[in-house]
Amino acid sequence: MYALFKKLLILLAICGAALCGGSDAFSMRREYRKTVAEHPEKVVEFLASTDAEVRRSAVWEYYLQKQEKSIDVLNKAVDDKDFMVRKSAIEALIALHAKKCNAATAVLEKVSASEEAPKLRQLASAAVWPFQREIQLLRNNPSWDYSITTVKSVQLPTTGWKFILDKEIDGHKKGYYNIKCDTSQWADISVGWWENFGYKDYDGFAWYRIEFTAPERIDSNAVELNFGAVDEAAWIWLNGVYLGCHDIGLAGWKTPFDVDCTKELKWGEKNILVVRVQDAADAGGIWKPITLNVLK
């Protein structure tokens, strides 16, 4: 009986704490709404509130009031521990970016490279990343109602790759994906984690480039590149044309994926494949082979 009574007291204490916490949050939000309604300029006092919903609302209200002058607050808010606070800050930055605010663009570029939540990173990236393409695979084509056969598979070289780090995250601005890009200063590397090739403890962005000869033209309905695994995000170009990206967060490090290159492949000729890789933690790089699959 005593044990049951003790458990009941603990349960009541927990419920009481939860109710008090909820009451505190309600009070803070009520105070915020009342204060800002009467004195809009006092919104700055709530930017560091312990309540995430108050912080989120305060960040958005501050942006509405200050517009371009809210950059410093938004730059801080994109590092907030709360997902929704960061989301609101990113949405405000996107609105400023659309107004040609260079400072907002710079913050969005930082977020697109460093944000841990894939959905928020993609939200920021979609606004500032100049390459956009949805991956359309034959097996996912709703108009394709036939079985699919792989008529030929060609594994791309695992050696002979060129490689360069992109610590400033501006390789795309330097044209690293361009077929005429000068790679004389790029290093040699092979498929495998880049830590095994002298880049120990490097987390960030890097670019890979390989030339390969495609087979002679084969009667087919689609051609796709299968990536065994890239640790952990990848953006792909073939012959200077953007094919799409694989960016699902940290879980992407061991996940195979495909991109369509039916129109971009040069049959029977040399092709140039370029891959931009991001690694946020631990090992990084193209660590499993890439295969060219001809489908019918």
What does this structure look like?
This protein has 296 residues and is α+β, with helices and mostly antiparallel strands. It folds into 2 domains: 22-128, Leucine-rich Repeat Variant, CATH 1.25.10; 138-295, Jelly Rolls, CATH 2.60.120.260. The protein contains 6 helices and 12 strands. The protein has a 6-stranded antiparallel sheet with strand order 3-2-4-10-7-8, with no helix packed on it. A 4-stranded antiparallel sheet has the order 1-12-5-9, with no helix packed on it. Strands 6-11 form a two-stranded antiparallel ribbon. A hairpin with a 2-residue loop joins strand 7 (233-238) and strand 8. Helix 3 packs antiparallel against helix 4 and helix 4 (83-98) runs antiparallel to helix 5 (102-114). The longest helix is centred in the N-terminal third of the chain and has 37 residues, at 2-38. Residues 4-20 have low confidence and may be disordered.
